[in-house]
Amino acid sequence: MKTQTLEYRHDGVACQGYLAVPEVAEPRPGVLIIHEAPGLDDHPKMRARMIAELGYVALAADLYGGGKVAGSGPEALSMMDELRADHPRLLSRIRASLDVLAAQPGVNRQQLAAMGYCFGGFCVLELARSGAPVKGVASFHGLLQTPNPAVAGKVKARILVCTGAEDPLVPADHVLAFEQEMSRAGVDWQVIAYSGAKHAFTNRAADQIPMPGFGYSPSADQRSWNAMQSFYSELFGTPAA
User: How far is residue 100's CA from residue 207's CA, in Å, rounded to a whole number?
Assistant: First the structure.
């Protein structure tokens, strides 16, 4: 596996993504990874390496630019809220990150997917709602509410949502509304809820977050990763060694 910082620009902002590429000759599916509210820290970079180990090319995007990572919870929320407030700019930056991934020489441009965590889960769902050319998106403890509900015939991606049954940021009524939205739009979707799992259940640092309803769950982390692998195998087949 080869890893590197991949610099790209969007709307005058210099972004510093993290690229992980398996050492194989033929082009592979590309997977875009979107970070949580704090930014492109160790967690999405670790996931990029894990994705590359499965045989896919992974780009962990830098949505804030400059590789900036928040130093505190309030700063992370401020950074996230500022970008979310300008939805067209947010969506354009996500799409620019996808385009950079698709342009990499080791990527099969016809086989793209995206995945995200918390804020990143919201982002990849918005990418799918926009009609972007991705075969599938996987959201892990992502926010499900949207200012732009899915439109019938527009969404090209299949959708996997992995959520915590005890996540206060994604309550049951949000899950139900999401399911109804996707069904009305005729989207191929699945939602898996994990008992006892709180917000950020895939992040091993979540237990240190001084907010109620956050916490790491080893079982939900592993089960959701297994579900994602099955999902990508369904989309792309099993990569050759």
Answer: 34
pLDDT tens figures, 13-59: 999 999 999 998 789 999 999 999 999 999 999 999 999 999 999 99
- Supply the CATH number for residue 218's domain: 3.40.50.1820
How many other C-beta atoms lie within 10 A of the C-beta of residue 84? 17
Q: In what order do the strands lie in the sheet with 189-194?
A: 2-10, 13-21, 57-60, 28-34, 107-117, 136-140, 158-164, 189-194
* Token output for 163: 């959520």
3 state SS for 99-139: HHHHCCCCEEEEEEEEEEECHHHHHHHHHHHCCCCCCEEEE
Q: How many folded domains does the chain comprise?
A: 1
pTM above 0.90, yes or no: yes
**Distance separating the N- and C-terminal Cα atoms of the chain:** 13
The counts of H helices and E strands in the chain are: 6, 8
Which residues constitute the domain of residue 7? Answer: 2-236
Summarised one tens digit per residue, pLDDT across range 176-209 is 999 999 999 999 999 999 999 999 999 999 998 8
In a domain, 200, yes or no: yes
pLDDT, position 239: 64
**Residue 14 within any structural domain of the chain:** yes
